[in-house]
Write a structure and sequence with these properties.
This protein is 57% helix and 0% strand. The protein has helices spanning 19-24, 33-57, 96-117, 121-159. The relative contact order is 0.02. The protein is an all-alpha fold.
């Protein structure tokens, strides 16, 4: 008997209650289901409370950690903080890389501010170059105007 490529699960098919069955109350779902759910939730909350009490007393050691205690300065201990234990007034210290990055950004901002004001050497050189270019353009425009005026004057003389 061929079933094709996929086989059905051996547990059988799911059965869903229709809205009519739910309204009539003839659903096949057991009536004690909600009670069982509530009991499970209560058990979970009581277990969590017990776990938190145990965690406060002593951390469970794995393997040989309980036998041999080593003070390893390179060992990173997990920092698990709960929301109630967080101190909002405490400022966190930045790492060396973060500190250097912030200093680098501030130095760049300071330099750009001085650059805009024209106080840095590069800004002074740029302003001198710009002034020179403006002067050259003004001279070139003046020369073009003179040539244009001379050309018009020649045309006027040629017509006469």
């Amino acid at each position: 008997m061929g079933r094709g490529k996929f086989k059905g699960k051996p547990t059988g098919r799911r059965h869903f209650s229709t809205p009519e069955e739910m309204l009539a109350g003839s659903s096949t779902r057991p009536r004690t289901f909600r009670k069982e759910e509530e009991e499970e939730k209560e058990e979970e909350t009581s277990e969590e409370e017990e776990d938190s009490d145990e965690n406060d007393q002593e951390v469970k050691k794995k393997g040989t950690q309980g036998i041999i205690e080593i003070d390893n300065p390179n060992l990173v201990k997990p920092k698990n903080l709960k929301a109630r234990d967080v101190d909002l007034e405490k400022t966190t210290e930045l790492s060396r890389r973060e500190r250097e990055e912030i200093e680098k950004q501030k130095a760049h901002e300071r330099y750009m501010r001085l650059q805009e004001q024209g106080k840095t050497e590069q800004a002074k050189k740029d302003l001198e170059r710009l002034q020179l270019i403006r002067q050259q353009r003004a001279d070139a425009a003046k020369k073009r105007e003179e040539e244009k005026a001379a050309k018009e004057l020649k045309k006027a003389e040629a017509r006469k």
